[in-house]
Amino acid sequence: MTVMRVAQVTEPGGRFEVVERELPQPGPGHVRIAVEACGICHTDAVFVETPFPGVTFPLVTGHEVAGRIDAVGDGVQRWKVGERVEVGWFGGQCGYCGPCRQGDFIDCRNLRVPGWAYDGGYATHMVAPVEALARIPDGLSAVDAAPLGCAGVTSFMGLRTSGARAGDLVAVLGVGGLGHLGVQYAAKMGFETVAIARGADKEALARQLGADHYIDSTAADPAQALQALGGAAAVLATAANAEAMSATVDGLRPRGRLVVIGLSQDPVKVTPGQLIGASLSLQGHPSGTAAEVEETMAFSARTGVRPMTETAPLDDVNEAFERMLSGAARFRMVLTVGSG
Fold first, then answer.
1. In sequence order, which residues have a C-beta less than 8 Å from that of residue 144 and are 6 or more positions away?
2. pLDDT band at 228 (very low <50, low <70, confident <90, very high)
3. Average pLDDT over residues 260-265
4. DSSP secondary structure string for all residues of 220-289
5. Kind and range of the H or E run holding 184
6. How many angstroms separate the Cα of 194 from the Cα of each of 170, 223, 245, 250, 310?
7. Domain boundaries, the chain
């Protein structure tokens, strides 16, 4: 029997254990990937630590996967053994729900997320449907590519859909796992980029990442500071803090937009008067399709955008997962599995 190694959790809230399993064969329309690197995303904790709907145990999670195709199933076209591929949060669509029928695959009502709908990338191998695959450009290592399948594409597409145009003032709230990518993308897209974070100690990093301005939210009112700069065409809210998001609304210029990508269970507080008085809008943004992941990686390779990562081998998955949860990682934890 040919085997692979996986890091699995056998019960909600349990610790990972690395075990051997039989190496699966890809079915029709699927490929098998030899995993080289897999990002550890905070959303993985939702699946691991709570009895999340549809999650079954033992669980192999992971949805920021970079590797190489090492086997293809029947009917697979345009994908070959040896190709470098990424599988992100978007792990396939149902094809029959309302959004899918309109071509809006990222909002599929039955979205197949790796590590939830099927075994993910905390493993030496995984099987994925071809609609989930994005080609990794030569300019990106597996470690750099992995976080772009979720954190990267979410930040990139959040800015792309913000309505802002090159030269506009755009603010990124938070300089963390999402925000450090958002600042880089905003700068490379040609926006006059403002980074907003807590504390003066983050200013040097924000400017290193490409920010033209820095607002310390502990020392200044973010809305007033943004208005002093002329008002933001868009605020990309990456920090998982609804109160901090709410504090930026009055910093938008007329017809400006608050784009929420940071996950919080608390409500964003905005009044009808705030929205109506300046024709403001508030939108949420999910991740991105496989095609959008591919575009994100191509843009990153071409412009020099890279995630800041810390790596750990698969055998150290528990320590790496706990470092991600603690917020100590700067800024994305990545499991290194193969030769990427």
1. 300, 306, 307, 309
2. very high
3. 94
4. S-HHHHHHHTT-EEEEEE-SS-HHHHHTTGGGEEEEEEEEE-S--SSPP---HHHHHHTT-EEEE-----
5. helix 179-188
6. 6, 12, 14, 15, 26
7. 3-150+288-336, 153-284
Which is it for the CA torsion 80, 312, 323, 54, positive or negative?
Answer: positive
Domains 3-150+288-336 and 153-284 share a fold: no
Which residue do the tokens 């109160």 mark? 243
Residues ≥6 apart with Cβ < 8 Å to 316 = none
Tell me the one-letter amino acid at 43. Answer: T
* Contact status, residue 44 vs residue 61, Cβ threshold 8 Å: yes
**What are 150-179's pLDDT values in tens digits?**
999 999 999 999 999 999 999 999 999 999
**What gap in Å lies between CA 338 and CA 244, rounded to an integer?**
40
- Nearest in space to 64 (alpha carbons), one of 92, 29, 89: 89
Average pLDDT, the chain: 96
Residue 235 phi, psi (nearest 5):
-120, 120
Give the count of beta carbons closer than 10 Å to the beta carbon of residue 218. 9
Cα 320–chain centre separation = 18
Contact 282, 268 (CB under 8 A): yes
Q: Long-range CB contacts (< 8 A, 24+ apart) of 104-110?
A: 105/131, 105/289, 106/286, 106/287, 106/288, 106/289, 106/292, 107/286
CATH class of 153-284: alpha beta
Q: Which two tokens stand for residue 145?
A: 């590519």
pTM: 0.96
Could you tell me the CATH superfamily of domain 3-150+288-336?
Medium-chain alcohol dehydrogenases, catalytic domain (3.90.180.10)
Token digits of residue 278:
């300046």
Eight-state DSSP code of residue 148: G
* Distance between CA atoms of residues 325 and 122, nearest Å: 16
Nearest to 314 by CA among 67, 43, 16, 11: 16
Pair type for strands 252-260 and 232-237: parallel
